[in-house]
Amino acid sequence: MADARSVYADRVRSGLGLDNPDPSAASSPERLEAAEVGHIAFAVPWKLALVMDRFADRRGFPVPGPDASGSWGMGRVPLAVPEALFTALWSIVDGAGGGRSALAFTQATAALGTHLDPGFRDAQLEVSRNWPGVADAAAQGWPEPFTLNQLTSAPAGSLASEFRALIIDNGFDLEVLDRDALSLRDLPAPLNYLNARILQVHDLWHLVAGYQTTGLHEIAISAFQLAQFGHAYSAWVLAVTLASASVEPVRYGVLSGVIAAAWSHGRATPPLLGVDWPSVWAEPTGTVRERLGVTAFESPWPADLFERAA
């Protein structure tokens, strides 16, 4: 009998998923589906929308509108996925539940990129340049950081005041990580813009799109971000999450359901990357949502489900 992790690795490399079941008892439906997501995250990022749309549809969250991916890259051979990637991935999985901070998880997941095929960046560039809304947003230039002074001067009840409260009350930084320390300006366009912008707006999107800052909704907003602009890091988060949960069918059902719902939500939401947020700081969050055509996320599970169970 093949080892379950070996089966997962083989499927991530090959892309064979639920449509090609393995006779091995190690290959549960959850593991096979998790490997499909790993395949798009690490080997074929150009198939991301195709596979995630199918993932969501299986759970009753059909995706509105046209395929976000277009047709580029569909004839390409999957990129190689070295063994070092799986070693690093299982290290993250095995460390789950050990008191690791959200920052440590973020850093370990981001580091998976160091183990990818050398051609991955070019493939990701192609995906980003073709994703709806990305080119227009990136054309606006380098995003200038928000400041607490901007937020403090806004009236009570405004988006800015809610955003400031979220940051202060939770002890967050205005940007998730230091963009300059990560040398994001040095990345090729539009990856430089995308990586800096999502550090800047991640917590703001929590508010505007209706995602709470709980464990379950942090996973959900990764799916929302992935749908909004094909973000490689978000795909890695989902791949790690589903690989970890695939040995527990109930947990997998919860996580896969919220991921499907958030992916569909992100695809139904107009592109948010290029929004001029300072121009709407003074408006109530509900008014901003209406202006932008955003509906708040309807979670299929209570946002604090995992916190309740702890």
Shape: globular
Measure the end-to-end span.
34 Å
Query: Strand pairing plus helix content: what structural class?
Result: mainly alpha
Mean of pLDDT:
90
Characterize the main sheet: none
Q: How many strand elements?
A: 0
Low-confidence stretches: none
- The radius of gyration over CA amounts to 19 Å
Break the fold down into its secondary structure elements and pairings.
Elements: H1 4-14, H2 29-42, H3 48-58, H4 83-94, H5 102-110, H6 120-130, H7 134-138, H8 148-152, H9 159-170, H10 191-209, H11 215-229, H12 232-245, H13 249-268, H14 285-292, H15 305-309
Helix pairs in contact: 1-2, 2-3, 2-12, 3-13, 4-12, 9-10, 11-12, 11-13, 12-13
What does this structure look like?
It is built from 15 helices and no strands. It has helices spanning 4-14, 29-42, 48-58, 83-94, 102-110, 120-130, 134-138, 148-152, 159-170, 191-209, 215-229, 232-245, 249-268, 285-292, 305-309. Helix 11 (215-229) crosses helix 12. The longest helix is centred in the last third of the chain and has 20 residues, at 249-268. It is globular, with a radius of gyration of 19 Å.
List keywords for this structure.
single chain; mainly alpha; 310 residues
Quickly describe the structure.
The chain is mostly helical and 310 residues long. Helix content is 55%, strand content 0%. The chain is globular and about 60 Å long.
